[in-house]
Design brief:
alpha/beta; Aspartate Aminotransferase, domain 1; Aspartate Aminotransferase, domain 2; 2 domains; seven-stranded mixed beta sheet; three-stranded antiparallel beta sheet; 13 helices; 12 strands; 41% helix; 14% strand; PyrdxlP-dep_Trfase; Selenocysteine lyase/Cysteine desulfurase; lyase activity; PyrdxlP-dep_Trfase_major; pyridoxal phosphate
């Protein structure tokens, strides 16, 4: 198990259970960044002329990672830039479906525009609530987090695929920021039309990089308004007209997208099967332990499938106590959010449980 932790020096000083807030910077990504900027320092435009391949390589690696066509992969600086650009390409009188209390960057962006919005509740009956919302009024688009940032509730992607088959005209837009990098996923065989993901969390790629995946049919329903010199620069964009280029109107940062490429290579080297197996083991152990300790909300306990993100009962004092023990978590909603990535261990879970029990007794 130690080999999964190698290359993450921060783990030597903290029990880091906070990937849902911020992933780590692996040594492999840090080394790329050091070399990139040193070469830029010494080479300036001569260096930059040789860097065009980084963007194409990143696009292709993402296509391989998510099972998506590289010519329909857009490289954007963050989720919000990509999502807002997408929304600007939709007519504002459209019917939209959102999840109540979903991630603010989703709901606020839609609510700030002139869409006709309805909501489905996030609870143990999430899929049923969504299905009923579709029956009441079929939306033109449904935008949602695949995994909820507050408590780790994950929408059933098989359900989304069935729903897409039943309502093919609805545009399904998924936020994969808390999902991508945690389990195997095929975009092409999914029910999603668009996937948007910031990669500083579960992909450990650092900040300033994100990506969007599109099904071919999306171009018929969305007309983005952004355009710039960068829209037709580089491999894939000219061949595909300017659709993904409208999400990339300006210059692209080879430091940040190269960091994403380095992070994806590290995942490949570590082994996706090994990564997903470790996350799965930890999430099952954690849910069982937290349920036994009555730390979870009822909606999470009642759902059969969950992720490695948990919101446990506790206030400021418990949060501060855990921090004093070098256990890094986040306060979200009414509780304390803990999250387990592949570099975490059963020993760390046991340590967390021991400290919580000790705090409760004191």
């Amino acid at each position: 198990m130690e080999n999964l932790r190698k290359g993450f020096p921060v783990l030597e000083q903290y029990t880091y259970l906070n990937t849902a807030a911020s992933g780590l910077l692996p040594e492999a990504v840090w080394e790329f960044r050091q070399e990139h900027d040193l070469d830029f320092l010494l080479g300036a435009s001569v260096f930059k002329e040789k860097q065009a391949h980084i963007l194409a390589d990143t696009r292709e690696m993402l296509g391989k990672f998510c099972d998506a066509a590289p010519q329909r992969v857009a490289l954007v600086p963050n989720f919000s830039f990509g999502f807002n650009t997408l929304l600007e390409g939709l007519k504002e009188n459209k019917n939209a479906l959102l999840l109540n209390n979903d991630y603010p960057s989703i709901n606020w962006a839609v609510e700030s525009r002139e869409f006709k919005i309805s909501y489905a509740e996030i609870n143990e009956n999430l899929e049923q609530n969504i299905a009923e919302a579709f029956k009441r009024k079929q939306p033109n688009f449904f935008a949602f987090s695949i995994v909820q940032y507050l408590n780790g509730i994950k929408i059933n992607l098989d359900f989304i695929k069935e729903l897409k088959e039943k309502y093919p005209e609805t545009l399904f837009i998924g936020d994969g920021t808390q999902f991508c990098g945690t389990e195997a996923f095929s975009f092409e065989s999914s029910g999603l039309d668009v996937l948007i993901c910031s990669t500083y969390k579960w992909l450990n790629a650092g900040y300033g990089n994100a990506f969007m995946l599109f099904k071919e049919e999306v171009e018929e329903k969305v007309t983005p308004k952004n355009l710039g010199f960068g829209s037709l620069q580089g491999k894939y964009k000219a061949q595909e007209g300017s659709f993904i280029g409208k999400f990339e109107p300006g210059h692209q940062d080879t430091l940040n997208f190269g960091s994403l490429l380095a992070a994806l290579k590290l995942i490949d080297k570590t082994g996706k099967t090994k990564i997903y197996a470790q996350i799965n083991t930890l999430k099952e152990l954690a849910k069982a332990e937290f349920t036994k300790m009555n730390l979870l909300e009822e909606a999470v306990v009642k759902r059969t499938e969950h992720t490695s993100i948990f919101n446990i009962k506790g206030g400021d004092k418990l949060f501060e106590y855990l921090r004093s023990e070098n256990i890094i978590t986040s306060q979200r909603g009414d509780g304390i959010r803990v999250s387990f990535h592949y570099f975490n261990t059963e020993k760390e879970l046991d340590f967390l449980v021991k400290k919580i029990r000790g705090f409760v007794k004191s």
